[in-house]
Specification:
The chain contains two helices and no strands. The chain is mainly α and 88 residues long. The protein has one domain.
């Protein structure tokens, strides 16, 4: 019989070899995909947290600026009214 064919058939008939081949073909790539997916999730979480902090900081600064402008306007209006009262 054909020697390479006999070797191939023996290899296929060996249960341990079949299991190893299946693990190598399915389980290992699945584990690698899972690890990659986890690394991507971690990177996305870091990016999302950084973006969230930046937006919160920007909103806080804008609200403080708006409050300061409002108080400045109130201050100016108050002084204008005081001057009107003094003139009258």
């Amino acid at each position: 019989m054909n020697k390479p064919l006999e070797v191939f058939e023996r290899k296929l008939s060996n249960n341990e070899t079949i299991i190893k081949d299946l693990v190598h073909a399915f389980l290992i790539p699945n584990v690698q995909r899972s690890k990659l997916k986890k690394r991507i999730e971690i990177a996305e979480k870091k990016f999302n947290e950084a973006a969230k902090k930046s937006l919160q900081s920007t909103i806080l600064k804008a609200s403080h600026s708006a409050i300061n402008q409002k108080w400045n306007l109130i201050y100016v209006i108050h002084h204008i009214n005081i001057k009107k009262i003094q003139i009258s």
